[in-house]
Amino acid sequence: MADNRVCILAVDDNPDNLVIIKALVREAFPDSTVLTAQSGLDGIALAIREDPDVVLLDIVMPGMDGFEVCRALKADKTMRDIPVVFVTALKEDKENRIRALECGAEAFLTKPIDETELTAQIRAMVKIKTANMEKRNEKKRLAGMVEEKTRELKKEHEKTLRLLEELKKENAIRKKSEDDLVEAQSLAHIGSFELDMQTNAMQWTQEGLRIFGVKNKEDVDSGEKALGFVHPEDREILNKKSIQAARRKRKAEMAFRIVRPGGEVRHVEYRLAPVFEKGILVRCIGSLQDVTERVAAEEALRLSEDKYRTIADNISDVVWTANLDLETTYVSPSVKNMLGETPEEHMKKTLRERIPPSSLARVKELFAQEMELEKDPRADKNRTRIFEVEHYRADGSIIWISMHITILRDSRGRMTGVLGVTRDISEIKRAEEALRRSEEKFRLLFDNAPLGYQSVGPDFTLIDVNQQWLTMLGYSREEVMGKNFHEFLPPKTKEPCALLYKDLVIKGEIQAELEIIKKRRQPAAGLPGG
Hints:
About 45% of the residues lie in helices and about 25% in strands. By secondary structure, the protein is α+β, with helices and mostly antiparallel strands. The protein has four domains: about 5-135, 3-Layer(aba) Sandwich (Rossmann fold); about 175-295, PAS domain (Beta-Lactamase, 2-Layer Sandwich), CATH 3.30.450; about 315-430, PAS domain (Beta-Lactamase, 2-Layer Sandwich); about 450-525, Beta-Lactamase. The chain is elongated, with a radius of gyration of 37 Å.
């Protein structure tokens, strides 16, 4: 889709923020549609109705916060492919960023919003959504086509096997069951023939004539005439195999092409059985089956498999499949980069050799849960599971990985195995640990700072205060937490405070003086927190 025609949904309980976002988007994308919502529920309703290309989502909102909205969007099959960009006023808000990623968000923007960054993020998110939709649609289309073609091929193969068995019996009682054989051949597109080795005379059934595209038996009443219909590139090998079968007194089978009188090329399968009497070759009998449609279906299936194999072989994540015993049946070459071992080496290892004991117990527990869930007819057949475990590398070191598991099923919906995508999240785990330590350090500094600090939400609810703030104003923590900051301001200070907060949202940082009411109603000077 064209960048200028994107549809953006902005969700923020502050109308001023929505005005700013709308102006920035319109400036960067003149022909865009900008939808706005001031609550999480309204935002979800708009997303369902309008299917926007990108959702710009504020984190802190009354009622339903941004995290809940994002989880709701990603849990819905119709909306999970819409990229979500969280908009936050705090550049170093690592905890919320990690929570946002866990909810399924794709990116972040920091207030005040930079127009260049906003433009780049929207374009990137539009590309992500387009790719997601194309992948989903292509997967459904190919899965349906593969399933249908596989079903057709299976049926045709079963018909062929049954008819070949009938053909063997026909050789003994051919004269008595000739009418039945002709009918069966017509249904399965199989023609039969008999070649007299003394006279070179050849007889074909009616279906054999149809396969060649002729009506008169005289067109194929000899071996030379029939050979004339064979594609020039296939004649030599057909003739060679037929001679070998006669010399070795064995049956011959091969596939080749024939060219009909109008120039149409058809694919056929040929079976030949030499007949000997007193050690002398007297005739050859056999069958010819038109398999053109099956060859086309097999080629389409091969191209589809090649396409997905190419994708799996060239992505950084590791794609793999396993049977119901959790034995790996395929793993993509990217396992070499992630674990330092070839696909062949990896597939030889057991689960116990790949996964540390604590994580192995979790994997087995989750698999047992899935097998138990399979017994419930109400269970979602397209469900997926995402979990994190530790995994050994080839050198014995341990990394953290994320596994995205999908159930594999046959045409009847029965579970046959699992499809997994594994991603190395060791860096994320290290970042989480660093963030935890940073937060502990920040909390220590916050709690022991010589100045009074406070943190308030968009609706001025007190989120946190340090001990110095409580000491300065004479309150206990229980008396202030969760209350509105306006309750601690003299009436004349409330309106200026609201204006200062709007400046803070736009500028990202302000400094001002306000009067705050002490517990004994004695005004004290103080600075508003961010």
